[in-house]
Amino acid sequence: MADSSFDIVSEIDRQEADNALNQAAKEVSQRYDFRGTDASVAWSGEQILIIANTEDRALAVLDVLQSKMIKRGISLKSLDSGDPYESGKQVRIVTSLKEGIDKEVAKKISKIIRDEGPKGVKAQIQGEEIRVSSKSRDDLQEVIALLKGKQEDLDVALQFQNYR
Question: If DSSP codes are grouped into helix, strand and coil, which group holds residue 38?
Fold first, then answer.
């Protein structure tokens, strides 16, 4: 019998991220407390640029963006927000979206699978994803449950794909 397997990835649905950003921009433009603060949120290449006239307003816009991301099903672990910095009369926050599992986190995940997972489960790091395989599908289900329980400790949002 062939091995069953699945992939552990960290991806963001770009369309959902775009929708969340558009909703946040619309809310910022319509909310009364943002009137006259020149507050905005928009794409700047691959990054999200938040602009306001004070640091508090910029952080409030970031909060609006984060709430829209959560409503759209995007984990806040995928957002990498920089510190607010002044640029002329404006305060800016540059936020980027993190995708892929870096080597250190991949090694940590495979160590968790090796140490705490069922015997006979193999984890292979393949670039920015991890392929987990086993003869038993029940063991794979156990690994998924184990990693979902450990997700707070990890610095990345995980998705499980290609279960076969």
Answer: coil
pLDDT, tens digit, for every residue of 33-60? 888 888 999 998 889 999 999 899 999 9
CA atoms within 13 A on the CB side of 17: 19
Using CA atoms, how far residue 115 sits from 17, 39, 108, 143, in Å, is 35, 49, 10, 11
Write out the DSSP string of 88-123.
TTEEEEEEEE--S--HHHHHHHHHHHHHHSPTT-EE
N- to C-terminal Cα separation, the chain: 13
Report whether 101 contacts 86 (CB < 8 A): no
3-class secondary structure, 159:
strand
pTM: 0.82
